[in-house]
């Protein structure tokens, strides 16, 4: 499960959307609420470190898959809320 991921600032919005959709799918599959914080770090390159200051800490800038997720995201769709009433 992802928590906080810093990515290069030039990462396309469709790639960030794909990361969020993947995390959401994991939550639906496991019947759990999940969240991910994707932070586009402007003017930062892969491998550099970004400092958020104070108690917020720091994070390395992570590489993202160069393949485009635009076609997947453009399909649209809806991720339903978990239905717990079907369980006995």
Automatic annotation (TrEMBL):
InterPro entries referenced in this protein's UniProt entry, alphabetically: UPF0210
Q: Which residues form the signal peptide?
A: none
Q: Name one Pfam family in it.
A: DUF711
> Protein name, please?
PFL family protein
Organism annotation: Agrilactobacillus composti DSM 18527 = JCM 14202
Q: What is the lineage of its organism?
A: Bacteria, Bacillati, Bacillota, Bacilli, Lactobacillales
